[in-house]
Specification:
about 100 residues; alpha+beta; Rossmann fold; two-stranded parallel ribbon; 3 helices; about 10% strand
């Protein structure tokens, strides 16, 4: 299976108690190229990251940074529904485009 077909969770924020450990974990994330499953990544974020059992704090606003090449290639037909579910949860997403294919 090519990487990017499925969303992958590398860690929960609740695994860290200091900034330097978190930064080190972020630097260890492997980028494998391949497909872009934006929908799967957003769904994983909504259900696993912004989840009280995994460290989400109800008194803190939910904010995510989406780094994208601008070309979702998997589950594209499900993307609008996932975006609607995220909006219903009031999760704020900041997007960072890394190619010239990103559209605003």
């Amino acid at each position: 299976m090519r990487e990017g077909n499925e969303a992958t969770l590398n860690f929960y924020l609740s695994n860290f108690t200091d900034v330097s450990s978190l930064v080190a974990a972020i630097r260890r994330i492997h980028y494998g190229g391949g497909n872009t499953n934006t929908t799967g990544g957003l769904r994983l974020m909504r259900t696993e990251i912004f989840n009280r059992a995994n460290g989400d704090r109800p008194d803190v606003k939910d904010v995510a940074i989406l780094i994208t090449d601008g070309e979702p290639t998997r589950e594209v037909d499900r993307l609008p529904g996932e975006v609607a579910a995220i909006k219903r949860r009031s999760i704020r997403i900041m997007g960072v485009g890394v190619t010239n294919k990103v559209r605003f």
